[in-house]
Amino acid sequence: MKLSLAILAGAIAGLAASASPASNALDYVRNHMPVFEKRTPNQPFRNSELQKRASKYMTDATSQFAVDGTKIPDVAFDIGESYAGLLPISADPDESRKLFFWFFPSTNPLATEEIGIWWVHASAPQSEKKQVCVTVAIVHEKNGPFTWEAGTLDPVQNPYTWVNLTNMVWVEQPVGVGYTQGVPNITNEVELAQEFIGFYKQFATTFALQNYKVYVTGESYAGFYVPYVADAFIGANDTEYYNLAGVAINDPIIGDSTNQQQVVVAPYVHYWENLMYLNDSFLEIMDSRAADCGYTAYLDKYLTFPPPQEAFPVLTDPYSLDNASCDIFDDVFNAEVLANPCFNVYHITDTCPHLWDVLGIVNPGDYSPPDEVVYFNRSDVQAAINAPVGTNWMQCTMKNVFGNGSNNQSLSDQSPGPANDGVLARVIEYTNNTFIGNGNLDFLLNTNGTLLAIQNMTWGGLQGFQASPTSNELFVPYHPEYNGGALSSDGIVGSWGTERGLTFYQVQLAGHELPGYAPGAAYRVVEAMLGRVENIGVPGDFTTQTGNFTGTGTIYKEKSQQLLGYPKGGVFGHAGVGL
Predict the structure, then answer these.
(1) Which of 330, 357, 413, 442 is labelled catalytic?
(2) Residue 228: which residues within 8 A CB-CB, separation 6 or more?
(3) For this chain's UniProt record, which GO biological process terms are given (predicted)?
(4) Alpha-carbon gap, residue 513 to 251, rounded angstroms
């Protein structure tokens, strides 16, 4: 007997209805199939659920700080996994003082239980009011995942980000700068350090960083911050939270500002005489005043290797005198601004025009287009990184963060330089892993000034370097460039030396912000600090990147030929240090 089409259709419909539970089950399985994705090195998974499961840092306690790396305003690429926000400086539930952080976990398998901290601070010339400049401005330093240089159109990915090497956190501190919250109530670096270690314990607890090795780094006035905070880590005697493993600072103020600026400025001007191009009569007056103020004789005696094994005499602060004849530093600055109206104390090769900077004005004369909003002062940026929306963020604030809540500018940091009071020496001896460096194009805190401060410091049983720390070549690997907007020098870029746990280095063509002007050199220093390479002179490629480090390719041969006949750089040709 044949079935009619109607009966057949009804039978099929009935079968379909009876099979619907199975279909639902199949749909469920289909919708919950495992997701497979090959992870790109140093990048998060594209699938958000995979990324959430992959990261040990994404927890119930940290999810409120998670940043969507694909939604940073004006950044056209994924910056990777990160966390940002405010944390208090103590466990007190009523604590109102909070520091802002931006934390980037690394995908480097060697970075499982270690973290680096970066700070920055910069000041205007001494005749100007001091400015406190903050750290979340990682787009300038070229050690964060992306960079946005002054005068450029858009941010670019950064192949030299230190996140390639280790977990990194950028912290805005002390209270009173950037996005930080609360009223400043400190007067010195010891109090600042106690605030920071209070914050760090909250941070480490939140992200489960207990027993992590901690590497503390920074530049400029971080020459104060880093040693004092590192010393507080040591004093806490608690390696569960404060397991200090190494320190690196560049272009730092670590000693007496008279020694680091006034005493050394005349040799600096002569070293770069053809570039700075000040007239002969000014140079003659400068030299005469340097001699009359005792600066020339001071350098002749104390910037030696080894130095006299005695405490250096303290020179009179020229700003404390009614007669400004010994304030040579500011007179040179003022003269140079006449010769080069766009003179940059941080990088002396700069000339006009001033370049527009998305982070806003730092130096007198910096250019900011009318009605242009500073990047980190935009509400969309603030919301994206969990910053308090509506904050009037400035890269450098004139607020007195050391005035115990007062705006009286005379109430400045009461701490002596860490090279002068034993703080830096304790850090060097404890870590046996301290790096101090300078860019030779830095006018504000030049290389000889840093060395003079070091020569006045005793560590490991001796005072100063016993031999000039310029005998070794600082080598940056030859390498393929990943982005034309984030380039770095390579080859021999400077010199270095090490004694008793302290390595000093100089980079000839870098300015004050050394990781920005010579990111490859800074990257190499961090590799050495982390123990990934033996030292900063070893020939070989980066531990995270490969390339033609032997210099045998055509482009490198051509580059080498262009450099033949030019002398290698040194510091400023004084007392056995230099060319």
Answers:
(1) 442
(2) 189, 190, 192, 193, 415, 418, 423
(3) proteolysis
(4) 8
pLDDT for 365 equals 74
Q: Of residues 82, 106, 123, 220, which has the active-site annotation?
A: 220
User: Is 320 among the catalytic positions?
Assistant: no
Backbone CA torsion sign across 181, 182, 188, 190: negative
The residues facing 156 across adjacent strands are 147
Q: What gap in Å lies between CA 553 and CA 477, rounded to an integer? A: 13
Distance CA 298, CA 290 (A): 10
Domains and their CATH numbers in the chain: 10-458+564-579 (3.40.50.1820)
Q: What's the pLDDT at 578?
A: 31
Closest CA to 332 of 277, 259, 292, 294: 277
- Catalytic residue check, 27: no
Of 381 and 13, the structure prediction assigns the larger pLDDT to 381
**494 forms bridges with which residues in the sheet?**
474, 507
- Give the residue carrying structure tokens 């050199």: 521
CA distances from 264 to 291, 328, 404, 579 (A): 12, 10, 33, 17
Confidence of residue 108 (pLDDT cuts 50, 70, 90): very high
Specify the higher pLDDT residue, 329 or 557.
329
> Is 512 one of the catalytic residues?
yes
Structure tokens at 467: 């031999």
Q: How many CA atoms lie within 13 A of 267 on its CB side?
A: 26
Q: Kindly state the percentage of the chain with pLDDT values over 70.
A: 80
- Give CA–CA dist 424/428, Å, rounded: 6
Supply the DSSP string of 199-257, one letter for each residue: HHHHHHHHTT-TT-EEEEEEEETHHHHHHHHHHHHHHHT-TTT-EEEEEEEES---S-H
Q: What is the reported pLDDT for 479? A: 74
Q: What pTM, to 2 d.p., does this model score?
A: 0.86
